[in-house]
Amino acid sequence: MINVTKSYLPSLRLYTKYLQKIWETGQVTNHGSLVSELENKLKRYLGVKHLFFVSNGTIALQIAIRALDLKNEVITTPFSYVATTSSLVWEGCKPVFVDIDPKTLCIDPEKVEKAITKKTTGILVTHVYGIPCENEKLQKIAKKHNIKLLYDAAHAFGVKLNGKSILNMGDISILSFHATKIFHSGEGGAIVTNSNELAHKIEYMRNFGHKGQEEFWGLGINGKNSELHAAMGLSLLPKVRFLIEKRKRLTEIYESKLKFNGIKRPELPRKIAYNYSYFPIIFENEAMMRKVKEELNKNDIYPRRYFFPSLNKLNYVKKQKMPNSEETASKVLCLPLYPDLKPSSVSQICRIINETLGNK
After folding, report:
1. Does pTM surpass 0.90?
2. 359: left (phi over 0), alpha (psi -120 to 50) or beta
3. Within 10 A of 343 (CB to CB), how many other CB atoms are there?
4. Can you say whether residue 26 is alpha, beta or left, with left for phi > 0 and alpha for psi between -120 and 50 degrees?
5. Contacts 24+ apart (CB under 8 A), 339-344
6. Residue 333: which H helix or E strand, with range?
7. How far apart are CA 360 and CA 346, in angstroms?
8. Fewest C-beta atoms under 10 Å: which of 47, 125, 224, 314?
9. Rounded distance, CA 75 to CA 42, Å?
């Protein structure tokens, strides 16, 4: 069976060394030495000022929304994983969807300003598949209207544009360290910011609002992560460059063997250092996508419809028409991509797709 992804596990011997430290200290959680070590190493690796290790990417979004004091209307993308929208709703905000650029699949900044009203407090957008949003345009809009800019960078670990980490864009960026991600800690996530003021808020918000043992800075939640998860992250971090290179090689096989007649790929900007987090292909129509998916499934190959449905179709948001997002969601398919995937399996997947599409 070939699934769309497979978690990469580090050397058990290395992981056990970190576990030995936990057994020696007896500290399992509450910001132990391994969590601090992981945060510091991630800051250096990613080139960011402040980074906070939290329990998952969704709680990272929720804390970021609170730290930025987002409320009322928040402009967001309809093409992302459901957590991007559900976090806003969970925190009492009203998602206002703006359609995507059909070439990059990221939010279309030309449409963002038209959606701003007196009730708009921020913009929450996703670097879809790790493809950077047009930050300069979005930042200019946010500054003009004095609203906050929050990036869901769950797919964008290690991505750079013009030599700089895209995690430095906006007021806050969040990451997911779920087990399926390039870098993971089993479960986990992170909040990144360059602002000292926001960093202070995030630090106490993720720990119930504590100011020492008997005082509180303000409202908080339990967003901490454990030493056990930090141990997984520390074991994996030295392998990230190798894992990205493996994914790059598999991507190159896909691109060389697939016949792009009836399918296309999202566009990457120039001067990007990409992380090869996904391999999405977009079909001419949904019927053809379903046919290819069915043929792959017959061969025990299981791609996934990332991302479906278009989030403006969720039953707990106000219905808005988003033609580009809806059309893309109906016909996009992410093919299997993970470091342990065999090149021969990639060739088999390409052969099945080509034959199904009549591209021999």
Report:
1. yes
2. beta
3. 12
4. left
5. 339/8, 339/242, 339/243, 339/246, 339/247, 340/6, 340/8, 341/2, 341/6, 341/250, 343/249, 343/250, 343/253
6. strand 332-334
7. 16
8. 47
9. 29
Tokens of 255: 């691109």
Q: ∠ at Cα 36 (32, 38), nearest 5°? A: 115
Of 215, 218, 177, 236, nearest to 52 by C-alpha is 177
List pLDDT tens digits, range 86-120.
999 999 999 999 999 999 999 999 999 999 999 99
- Reported confidence tier of residue 359, pLDDT bands at 50, 70, 90: confident
d(CA 86, CA 282): 25
What distance in Å separates the CA atoms of residue 166 and residue 192, rounded to the nearest whole number? 11
User: What's the 3-state SS for 282-298?
Assistant: EECCHHHHHHHHHHHHH
Q: Where are the alpha helices (DSSP H) in 130-239?
A: 135-144, 196-205, 227-236
Cα separation values, 95 from 92, 115, 314, 319, 332, Å: 10, 11, 11, 10, 23
d(CA 209, CA 358) in angstroms, rounded, equals 60
User: Does residue 339 sit in helix, strand or coil?
Assistant: coil
pLDDT range class, residue 360, cuts 50, 70, 90:
low
